[in-house]
C-alpha cells in the first residue's frame, strides 16, 4: 500500500543521509527484523553493506538456506557466512541446564560475530563505521526501562555491540511495530517465509532439546519440527498461531509398538500458542485433524520418535519455551 511505499522510500533516504559514502555491516539471524533492516540498508547503500550470518547449527530445517540463498537472491546483498556448528556443539557438549545453555550460546555467538566483524573491517580498504540493527519500537521502549528482560534479550539478539569496536548504530526500524516491519519486508520483495516467520528464540533448538544437545538430537528435532510447521502451513493456520515450538524430551523414553516390533523411543511435545506479545499466551486449539496428521507423520517419518504429546498449559503458569 502507498503508506508502506512512503515509509520505505523515506527510510532509504534517511539511511543514505546517515551513512553517506561510508560502509556498514549487519548481522542476520534468519528472523524478520534483521532481514528487513538489512534489505533497507542494501537499497540505500548497495554493496557498501556487508551482512554476517553465523550458522550456529541450532536453526530449524531450511532456515540457513533461506538466508544464504533466498535472502541473497531477493536482495543481492553481500553475505559473509560463518559455519560455526562444530564450535557450538563442542561448547554445548554435556550441558543440560537451561540458563547454562543460554550463557554458552550467547557467549559463543558474540565471539564468532566479533571475529567476523574484525575480519570484514580488516579486509575493507575503507573504514567500516556503521552497524545496522533491526531494533523495533517496542525494543526501544523496553530497553528504556533498563529491565533485566531487555538486557537478556539484547544479549542474545544478533549484533550485540563489541565494546572495543566503535560503530555508529543504524536502526531504520526504530519507529515501527512488527506488522509494519512485515509490510515493509513485503514491499522490499523479501520471501514470504522470512517476512512471515514466527518469533524464534536466539538460542534456537538448543533450548528445545530437554537434556544435552548433540548433532543426532538436533537432527531428530529438526525433522519433527519441519513436519509440524509444514502441516500448520498447509492448514492455513501459521499466521494465527503466534509460535509453535516442538520440544524433544531427549532423556525420556517410552515403550511403543510399530509394525511387528516393540519400540523404545523419545516423546516430543507440540507447543502451539496464541499470544499478542509473548508476555502471556494461551495454548492454541489446533483442529484435531491437523494434530492427527502431525502425529501420524512424525511417528511414521522420524524413527526415533514413538509418541507425540500436546502441551495445553497457558502462560502463566507455563512459559512458551520449555527451557
Ligand atoms: P517464554 O518461554 O519466556 O518466551 O515464555 C517468551 C518469548 O521469548 C522467546 N525466548 C527467547 N528469545 N532468547 C531469545 O532471543 C532467549 O533466550 C529466549 N527465551 C525465550 C520465546 O521464544 C518467546 O517468543
TrEMBL record:
One MF annotation (Gene Ontology) recorded for this entry: GMP synthase activity
UniProt KW keywords: ATP-binding, Glutamine amidotransferase, GMP biosynthesis, Ligase, Nucleotide-binding, Purine biosynthesis
Metabolic or biological pathway: Purine metabolism; GMP biosynthesis; GMP from XMP (L-Gln route): step 1/1
Superkingdom to which the source organism belongs: Bacteria
Enzyme category, top tier: ligase
Catalytic activity entry: XMP + L-glutamine + ATP + H2O = GMP + L-glutamate + AMP + diphosphate + 2 H(+)
Residues involved in ATP binding: 29-35
Domain GMPS ATP-PPase per the UniProt entry, residue ranges: 2-197
EC number(s) reported in the record: 6.3.5.2
A cellular component annotation (GO) from this entry: cytosol
Role description: Catalyzes the synthesis of GMP from XMP.
The protein's assembly and partners: Homodimer.
Protein name, per record: GMP synthase [glutamine-hydrolyzing]
Parent-protein start and end of this portion: 199 to 521 of 521
